[in-house]
Specification:
about 260 residues, 15 strands, alpha+beta, disordered N terminus, five-stranded antiparallel β-sheet, eight-stranded mixed β-sheet, 2 domains, SH3 type barrels, 5 helices, BirA Bifunctional Protein, domain 2
């Protein structure tokens, strides 16, 4: 494992991976692991698979510009740098699907086969109607290719109290307390497995697996789009990552900020 010189402490993760997490940067506190990872990339100090992990993130970012809040030392907060030059920029949502599936795989190994465990489009992790984790992927493009990707993941592990009733944690679901180091190692392994599946071109398998665990897939529910109520049924996700919703006799496609779950 490649350890950079400015680290004050490195927890013994030892993931059984080819490259993901083999360079580990542990920070006791930072504003955002995604920001720190981007800085390392800019300084040419991040190898492919570099992982930045922290105990305390003070300004974590989520989807839609939301802030990701996590109690210090109780959860997993990390970012992984990949260089998926094999993936066209037009297909970047495939990376989002692979990452979401990896987190789902990791949780399934801990919780067992749980029908309530779902990926909420585009890549939040839900148990029932409560959020277990969030993913924020920031891709830097070079022409029609992805130059590098920073994959930020926040997962509620041991935290028991939240400011909102729509959040839960692994420990809250099982009643157990978890050691974060081994969990992080297993997560990095799960991420690499799905990433290698993507790199091998097995995209139809990824798409099918994603739909099989998609929150509300095939069910009729209420939404809001353009400030107007909408009732519809999620039928899939197109290649650009837009959510397909069948409503009023037609299928409409929505980007992230164009539809809201009710």
């Amino acid at each position: 494992m490649n350890v950079t010189k400015y680290e004050k402490h490195v927890e013994a993760l030892s993931p059984q991976t080819l490259f993901t997490g083999q360079q580990l940067v542990w920070l006791p506190e930072c504003a955002s692991t995604n920001t720190e990872a981007q800085l390392l990339v800019g300084q040419n100090r991040a190898t492919d698979g570099c992982c930045v992990i922290t105990d305390k993130q003070t300004a974590g970012r989520g989807q839609r510009g939301n802030q990701w809040e996590a109690a210090p030392g109780e959860n997993l907060t990390l970012s992984v740098v990949w260089r998926p030059a094999f993936l066209p920029a037009a297909d970047q949502f495939l990376l989002s699907q692979a990452v979401a599936l990896a987190v789902h795989d990791w949780l399934t190994a801990l919780l067992g086969s749980a029908p309530a465990l779902r990926v909420k489009w585009p890549n939040d992790i839900f148990y029932g109607a409560q959020k277990l984790g969030g993913i924020l992927i920031e891709n830097t493009l070079s022409g029609a290719k992805i130059q590098h990707s920073v994959v930020g993941i926040g997962l509620n592990v041991n935290q028991q109290e939240f400011g909102v009733p729509t959040a839960t944690s692994l420990g809250g679901l099982t009643g157990r307390a978890y050691q974060l180091g081994p969990l992080a190692a297993r997560l990095l392994e799960a991420l690499e497995r799905r990433y290698l599946q993507l790199r091998a071109g097995r995209v139809q398998e990824l798409r099918a697996a994603y739909l099989s665990v998609l929150y509300r897939f095939g069910e009729e529910h209420a939404y809001e789009a353009g400030g107007q109520p909408l009732r519809g049924r999620i039928t899939g996700v197109d290649e650009a990552g837009r959510l397909a919703v069948a409503t009023a006799g037609q299928v409409r496609y929505f980007d992230l900020k164009e539809i809201r779950y009710v």
